[in-house]
Amino acid sequence: MYGWWGKVLLVDLTRMKTREIILDPETYRSYIGGRGLAVRLLWDLVPPGADPLSPYNALVVASGPLSGLPLPSSGKLVVASKSPLTNGYGDGNIGTMASHHLKHSGFDAIVVTGASRKPVYIYVENEKVEVRSAEHLWGLDTFTTEDKLVREHGRNIGILEIGPAGEHMVKYATVISQKGRSGGRPGIGAVMGSKRLKAIVVKGTREPPIADKNSLRSISEEAYRKLLESEGYDYWIRQGTMATIQWSQQNSVLPTMNYREGVWELYETISGDLMEKLKTDRRGCPYCNMQCGNVIADDAGEESELDYENVAMLGSNILLEDLRRVGEVNKMADKLGLDTISLGNAIGFYMEASERGLVRERLEWGDFKAVREIVVDTAYRRGLGAFIAEGVMRMSTSLGGEALDFAMHVKGLEVSAYNCHTTPGMALAYATSSIGAHHKDAWIISYEVKTDRTSYSREKVERLIFLQNIRGGMFESLTTCRLPWVELGLNIEYYPKMLSAVTGLEWSINDMHTVADRIYTLIRAFWIREHSGWSRSMDYPPARWFKHPLTKGPYAGHHLDPLRYEKMLEAYYEMRGWNENGIPRRETLLKLGLDFTIPILEKIVELG
Ligand code: PTT
Ligand code: SF4
């Protein structure tokens, strides 16, 4: 078999045993890799109803057939688990040298089950696998952890680690790599912490099995060249994702004051233009010629790597002025191992609750000093930080009443940085995303604001499913960065071509859609399996976008319409082959080869 090694490494930290799981070629063809492989492994290995922070949960680190190979922006991998934040399927995508090393190790993925009694880290060097003591690393921040591991093992390794937030099982702790790459928003870092797993270190030196190396080389060289020659390349290199601050402001979708507004009069204090003036360096993921990690010197005079989501959530959403200050909070989140999107949401939610007099301890909008303290307390679950560490869904449920209306999450995952009072398509994208309110699966908002912005059309739903399949299905399973396609318009046909060259099998974009449909539906089945009393209300965006109209900017007075949203959701279900409650129909499961889910699902819900 070309393209895959055909085996997955399983490390059981309770028994301190390792073994190989051999997978058949059909499984690889059906799920490709990355997210696809991860959800299939989680379905098979995690007992239904398992507590995500118990030894029964599994952590999956999965590469895809294209990751870690010399082709555009391939240095990515997927970290996945049953999420402690949402109790559903959770994953994240991280740019890291660990992608290259896993690809060259002889394994397609690493699965960790059980839990160690003492802190450990896993060391994989090709077929050699060791579980080593991490007593000397436990309690350290992610930057120091990485420095120490490099000192112990040399530079030629890939490292995934957690910080204090993961150790204290903060519900939105992430996995960090390379001092500024973060993945696994729905608490995948907390799952590592629950297993007392501080880090995974991989060193791979084996030659991956590629069917047609010459063809891969020429497709890949051409694709790299197209990117360099693309019209937007220079601007991208200057601003990267930070250009989105200005775009969001211009389009009234910049999250401001816990998504109360879509514009902020002080947006220039955190803009991409300002970032350009402060920029000291540029970093990024392996195999990428678009290096989009913009580094500035923060308020503490240290380096901070900025991206749009971080800056919007820790800037306009909590009214924190000054990019250097935002950068400092961002860097703290990276060191502590906290997701910046959920953190900015949880702090913004608390600030609003404080303004409304719903909580005793005060927290003012934009209070930099208080925010810095709260971020550290959150990672260590101290005082008010223990409340904020639980995430917006649990915070709002414990306050109840009006707090439920300004709780910005879907299925428990906090909303990423787009305010959707006037963009029903993006609201539906959040509501039906496979991990909760994240934009990775369908960033339809960029299309929406250019076309029939406030409409609830079927055409938008079709476009949304196309995007979910390409972004959430194809890119997440291949696994490569989607930004060459999204930002610089790299022709999408390069991807099936590269996959064909690597695997020696014929792939087309249509095949990608079929696999993506399968992955989406299996993820949906996983959610239903783990949530008794599943209903379509799980697929609603936050109440604020229906109930609290914008008060500022050109769209003042606008909000979403619940009845028209319902119609859109109905169209979505119909196109996906799911019933009126968002449950896949029996014939859909059979058509996608997901028949193994039927005996389990039909005990829980009506399949129809
Ligand atoms: C991603 C989410 C994002 S999406 C951002 S900024 W973005 C935030 N980044 C964080 C961070 O940084 N530090 C931190 N402590 N928490 C953070 N939380 C937020 O996490 C990221 C890039 C970006 S930057 C984006 S859009 C694209 N995302 C991709 C994706 O999801 N899939 C894919 N195939 N390619 C992608 N390319 C781009 O990668 P999650 P990264 Mg990330 C500092 O992980 O869980 O998916 O959440 O991986 O290596 O940092 O690259 O404006
Ligand atoms: Fe990483 Fe940015 Fe390159 Fe994507 S474009 S691989 S996020 S550096």
From TrEMBL:
Coiled coil: none annotated. It comes from the Archaea. Pfam families: AFOR_C (PF01314), AFOR_N (PF02730). Keywords: 4Fe-4S, Iron, Iron-sulfur, Metal-binding, Oxidoreductase. InterPro entries: Ald_Fedxn_OxRdtase_dom2, Ald_Fedxn_OxRdtase_dom3, Ald_Fedxn_OxRdtase_N, Ald_Fedxn_OxRdtase_N_sf, OxRdtase_Ald_Fedxn_C, Tungsten_al_ferr_oxy-like_C, W-dependent_AOR. GO terms for molecular function: 4 iron, 4 sulfur cluster binding; aldehyde ferredoxin oxidoreductase activity; electron transfer activity; metal ion binding. Its cofactor is tungstopterin; [4Fe-4S] cluster. Residues 4-206 form the Aldehyde ferredoxin oxidoreductase N-terminal domain. It is an enzyme of class 1 (oxidoreductase). Its EC number is 1.2.7.5. Belongs to the AOR/FOR family. This is Tungsten-dependent formaldehyde:ferredoxin oxidoreductase. It comes from Desulfurococcus mucosus (strain ATCC 35584 / DSM 2162 / JCM 9187 / O7/1).
